[in-house]
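FORM 12-B: Structure-to-Sequence Request
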């Protein structure tokens, strides 16, 4: 309804202009023309007014029609003012012959003005190319872009400079660079600055955009209509920024419909710049991936250095513990044995019965000393593990645990000693943690399996559990991580309050232990 009203206004304006033009022609040429004939021009407004109620395309055309009519009215007003100025300067009214000449001159001026108005953008572009040479050729633009790439300009600055140069060289209304993130195109850099929302490609595969190449209104209206929103009065072209068939973004340019259409040279320039921008984005992505890889390598190196430091410290602590155990345990037993032997020797002549009793006690002392040495050796490397492997060593460890432990090692063979020791001591560490924190009523299941030449273990309890985000990784878990990390293994801890704890460790392909002789 609003469009129909505007069409009626346009009709009234056309009628007024028609009356004024007919009256002016009558005055200039001194020819009888019925004024009402000019008013008939306003009747044409009835047709678009009615059509606008039915077709939206007619309704949208009212604004350009009003703009054109007002422009013509302004032009006619200027021509009338010039005519009045000429009459005033002459100081008299023109004769009949002069009226015809002056009238034809005014008509020629009007026609010339209208022709120039429609051709002004082309004339302006031609003049700039001829005089200022500010429109670079495709080769010039690509060479300039390549030179900027070689100067290691930051990516955002390079993209902005390219957008500004492209806009100026091709006389564009806007240049926009969009980057692809997953299945979404996001605004990146524009000249002027982009004020648009991200576009979800939906079912449109990125490879389709690459294969389509340079695209215009027809393709965009079918496959990417969001890109045309708010661009109804512009020529739009879209070129993919791709590398090796992979879409990395798009380059969008916009030129007003009042300007010239895109030439083949314009389109070649756009495609080439988009291609080079695709290479730049690809290189930037590689640089980012390389930087992340270097940071990951540095992180791993720092962890390895810290792990080695912890291993050295743990080794020193273990040696001091062995020394202390030898001094406080086995050494004391041996010293006591020596004292008892000397005592028995001195009593042998004086009190043989008492000496025999002391010697009988030596048997028990020797057994205690041997057991102390066995316990000490067991802490260093369990003899049972070396002799019979993981299944028997883990069963023995389960029997010593304060919690009920079920061990599953079905069909497990022998592996390299360092791998078996790593798995054994990690399981022992996990059992000790379960004993401390799982609670009295908890049960534990230990599962050790071989996969693709490697070893995995799972120690799972149904105890109290804990929140890993609050408590983090304690010293016991860090010890396990260091042991596994020394052989390229991994550790994962899963726990939750009142849902128990599961410790999973894995070693990569490990050589088999040699068969016993």
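FORM 12-B RESPONSE
SEQUENCE OUT:
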């Amino acid at each position: 309804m609003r469009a129909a009203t505007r069409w009626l206004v346009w009709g009234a304006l056309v009628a007024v202009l028609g009356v004024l033009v007919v009256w002016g022609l009558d005055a200039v040429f001194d020819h009888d023309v019925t004024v009402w004939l000019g008013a008939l021009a306003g009747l044409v407004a009835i047709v678009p007014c009615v059509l606008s109620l039915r077709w939206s395309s007619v309704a949208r055309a009212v604004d350009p029609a009003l703009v054109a009519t007002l422009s013509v009215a302004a032009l006619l007003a200027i021509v009338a003012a010039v005519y009045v100025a000429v009459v005033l300067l002459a100081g008299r009214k023109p004769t009949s012959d002069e009226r015809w000449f002056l009238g034809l001159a005014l008509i020629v001026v009007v026609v010339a003005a209208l022709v120039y108005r429609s051709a002004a953008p082309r004339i302006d572009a031609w003049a700039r190319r001829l005089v200022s040479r500010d429109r670079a050729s495709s080769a010039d633009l690509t060479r300039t872009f390549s030179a900027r790439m070689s100067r290691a300009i930051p990516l955002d600055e390079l993209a902005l400079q390219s957008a500004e140069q492209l806009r100026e060289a091709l006389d564009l209304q806007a240049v926009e660079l969009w980057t692809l993130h997953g299945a979404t195109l996001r605004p990146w850099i524009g000249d002027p600055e982009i004020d648009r929302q991200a576009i979800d490609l939906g079912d449109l595969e990125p490879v389709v955009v690459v294969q389509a190449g340079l695209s215009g209104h027809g393709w965009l209206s079918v496959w990417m209509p969001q890109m045309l929103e708010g661009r109804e009065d512009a020529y739009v072209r879209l070129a993919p920024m791709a590398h090796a068939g992979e879409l990395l973004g798009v380059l969008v340019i916009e030129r007003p419909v009042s300007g010239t259409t895109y030439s083949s040279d314009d389109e070649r320039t756009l495609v080439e710049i988009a291609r080079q921008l695709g290479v730049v984005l690809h290189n930037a992505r590689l640089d980012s991936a390389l930087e992340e890889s270097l940071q990951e390598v540095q992180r791993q190196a720092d962890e390895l250095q810290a792990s080695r430091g912890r291993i050295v410290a743990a080794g020193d602590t273990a040696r001091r513990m062995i020394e202390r155990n030898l001094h406080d345990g086995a050494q004391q037993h041996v010293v006591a044995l020596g004292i008892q032997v000397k005592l028995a020797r001195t009593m042998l002549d004086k009190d043989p019965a008492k000496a025999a009793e002391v010697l009988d006690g030596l048997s028990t002392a020797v057994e205690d000393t041997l057991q102390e040495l066995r316990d000490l050796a067991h802490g260093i490397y369990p003899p049972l593990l070396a002799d019979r492997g993981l299944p028997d060593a883990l069963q023995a460890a389960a029997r010593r645990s304060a919690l009920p432990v079920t061990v599953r090692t079905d069909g497990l063979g022998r592996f390299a000693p360092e791998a078996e020791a790593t798995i054994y001591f990690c399981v022992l560490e996990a059992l000790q943690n379960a004993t401390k924190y799982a609670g009295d009523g908890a049960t534990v299941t230990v599962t050790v399996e071989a996969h693709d030449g490697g070893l995995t273990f799972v120690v799972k309890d149904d105890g109290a559990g804990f929140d890993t985000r609050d408590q983090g990784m304690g010293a016991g878990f860090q010890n396990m991580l260091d042991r596994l990390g020394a052989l390229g293994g991994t550790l994962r801890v899963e726990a939750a309050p009142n849902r128990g704890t599961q410790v999973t460790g894995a070693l990569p392909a490990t050589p088999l232990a040699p068969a016993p002789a």
